């Protein structure tokens, strides 16, 4: 099948431990809403407190893995004959039901359009992670660390907003040696598109470099995400090293502004920043760099070749909003599902908005198991 393995993601597979908490909980652990950070010493008791005192949900997560899973599912959904993305977006919910049925059949035909690489532990959570990828049809090649436990990410939700505290644990043990093994490098050779969230810059810049150079040499498409203000700020050097290879840069408004400040650009204007990121020198000349910045409910900003385009999102009544966690990841997933079949950028953005819209009506980055339609 022509699409098999066309999209490869590499990142930190994490088990999201999600719970609704109170402001007091946030204060005690010194965490801020709408932020994503790495766990420190002071956060250690938090995971246990979440598990014992709150109603927690365990959901396979990790930014890249979420995007890849959504891409795989959307891919299966959207590439059915007679179903162009534009028709899907007419009435998302009705369409959703219809497509879900088709999706089950379609999955059987191309289960492996996407693949994913990252490191987990040899434990229960790791096993759950494997089952989850399989179920979504993602061809995951996990490196299994002998000692470290599968990474977790606390998702603390207050009033529909959330804070992420990642304990990378095994995810932090990924090694380029795993990537170089013939069975894994074969995934790189097969893929034509690569997506890596910025979070992976803290783990294995060498692995990123290997993939980036391969993509540049073979005229393939290499994509990364700014992912979090702390990446732009404290991993500036490794991010800059990867930037020339990036054909697409994703990010949200806050990340874009942090990037701008860290580079001394003296502009807070998201459109200007997107243009400047696109104009950053490139390692290979084949593709012009496209920068895609999301803005919550505001239009998505796309900068390419010195020009900016704005794309409105699908609005959602406030009472339907459950959890904006993973909206960004889902957006990227939907976007990628169209990009890899060479759809125009308008379709990519539409599919991204659609995927984000579905995800924010649910807890975590999970697709409905049954259509919620009565
Ligand atoms: N309240 C909302 N209503 C409708 N759509 C939304 C809303 N919030 C997010 N979205 C959709 O999700 C996309 C990404 O949102 P946003 O810019 O908030 O990402 P983000 O803050 O990076 O998300 P996260 O970090 O939670 O994954 C938007 O472009 C939009 O399509
Ligand atoms: C992260 O997880 C590991 C393994 O479960 C644990 O030993 C460690 O204490 C945790 N670190 C923090 C900061 O919570
Ligand atoms: C963008 O994402 C960051 C986390 O990386 C978060 O702190 C911020 O609130 C988000 N911004 C918007 C406008 O949603
Ligand atoms: C990635 O990019 C999207 C879309 O531009 C953004 O909304 C999101 O916050 C980013 N997130 C991660 C975690 O990589």
UniProtKB/TrEMBL annotation:
Q: What is this protein called?
A: Adenosine kinase
Q: Which CDD domains match?
A: adenosine_kinase
One biological process term from GO is:
adenosine salvage
Q: What does this protein do?
A: ATP dependent phosphorylation of adenosine and other related nucleoside analogs to monophosphate derivatives. Essential to sustain methyl recycling.
Q: Give the enzyme's main class according to its UniProt record, as a single word.
A: transferase
Q: Which InterPro entries match?
A: Adenokinase (IPR001805), Carboh/pur_kinase_PfkB_CS (IPR002173), PfkB_dom (IPR011611), Ribokinase-like (IPR029056)
Any GO MF annotation of the entry: adenosine kinase activity
Q: Which cofactor does it need?
A: Mg(2+)
Q: Which reactions does this protein catalyse?
A: adenosine + ATP = AMP + ADP + H(+)
């Amino acid at each position: 099948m022509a699409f098999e393995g066309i999209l490869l993601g590499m990142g930190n597979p994490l088990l999201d431990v999600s719970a609704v908490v109170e402001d007091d909980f946030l204060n005690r652990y010194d965490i801020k809403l709408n932020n994503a950070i790495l766990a420190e010493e002071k956060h250690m008791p938090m995971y246990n407190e979440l598990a014992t005192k709150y109603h927690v949900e365990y959901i396979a997560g990790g930014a890249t893995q979420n995007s890849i899973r959504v891409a795989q599912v959307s891919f299966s959904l959207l590439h059915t004959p007679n179903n162009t993305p534009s028709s899907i977006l007419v009435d998302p919910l009705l369409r959703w039901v219809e497509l879900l049925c088709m999706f089950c059949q379609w999955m059987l035909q191309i289960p492996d359009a996407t693949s994913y690489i990252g490191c987990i532990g040899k434990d229960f959570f790791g096993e759950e992670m494997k089952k989850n990828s399989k179920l979504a049809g993602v061809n995951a090649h996990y490196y299994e660390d002998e000692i470290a436990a599968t990474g977790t990410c606390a998702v603390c939700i207050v009033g529909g907003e959330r804070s992420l505290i990642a304990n990378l644990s095994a995810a932090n043990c990924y090694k380029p040696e795993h990537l170089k093994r013939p069975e894994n490098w074969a995934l790189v050779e097969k893929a034509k598109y690569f997506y890596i969230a910025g979070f992976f810059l803290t783990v294995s810049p060498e692995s990123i470099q290997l993939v980036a150079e391969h993509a540049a040499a073979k005229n393939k498409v290499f994509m990364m995400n700014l992912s979090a203000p702390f990446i732009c700020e404290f991993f500036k050097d490794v991010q800059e090293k990867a930037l020339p290879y990036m054909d697409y840069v994703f990010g949200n408004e806050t990340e874009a502004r942090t990037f701008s400040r860290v580079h001394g650009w003296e502009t807070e204007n998201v459109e200007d920043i997107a243009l400047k990121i696109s104009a950053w020198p490139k390692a290979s000349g084949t593709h012009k760099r496209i920068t895609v910045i999301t803005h919550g409910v505001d239009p998505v900003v796309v900068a390419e070749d010195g020009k900016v385009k704005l794309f409105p999102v699908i609005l959602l009544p406030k009472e339907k909003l459950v959890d904006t966690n993973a909206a960004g990841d889902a957006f990227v997933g939907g976007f990628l599902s169209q990009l890899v079949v060479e759809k125009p950028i308008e379709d990519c953005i539409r599919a991204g908005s659609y995927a984000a819209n579905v995800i924010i009506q649910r807890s975590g980055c999970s697709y409905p198991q049954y259509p919620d339609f009565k």
